[in-house]
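sorry to bug you again but im stuck and you know this stuff better than me. what follows is a protein written twice so to speak, once as letters and once as structure tokens for the fold. mainly i need to know what kind of three dimensional shape the backbone takes. anything you notice is useful, everything is just below:
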Amino acid sequence: MEFFCVLRRQLYLCLRRDSSTLGFCKRSACFYKAFAAKYDIHRCSRNSRLCQGASIQHATQSRHSCSAFWRTQSVRAESTESSISAAQYEAITAETLDSLAERLEEVLDDVTDMPEADLALSDGVLTVHFGEKIGTYVINKQTPNRQIWLSSPMSGPKRYDFINNRWIYKRDNVSLHELLGKELSKFLKKDIDFGKCAYAV
């Protein structure tokens, strides 16, 4: 079992060395399991010198591949998420909310069977009331997190991050403008598009 222990220790040290990137080492067990499956370690014979040598070689190489993997993931995250300053965030959210308010006002003007429908934009909070039949949308900026938050009567609360020049919900990668268009089209039974709004595409 010596080769097995060496391999396990090499992988552990690899993950431990990169713990600053991961934030923790709890993934070591999962990574080890996947690595073992990839190289068929569980099929190796204890007395096979060839297997021992190959396994130890894979373990040594894994230190470099492991570090490269997490560096790649870090670079990908940095490239997809825009790091914007507080001033940029304020300007972008203001333009986003203003353009949404203008488009939603046009939508409300075309609605003739909802006399109680109303819209208000104040202090970074856009509230759109479609009456009791549909409900109320609330779209507001969340400065500490550099996000825009949405409360929808159909899909509930969502938090949007500014990624690749659009406001994206990370759990499904759907943009704020796409979701609003889809839901309002369903509610109002006609095509509602937000493609011309700021940061929609």
About this structure: Helices lie at 2-17, 19-22, 28-38, 49-80, 86-110, 176-188.
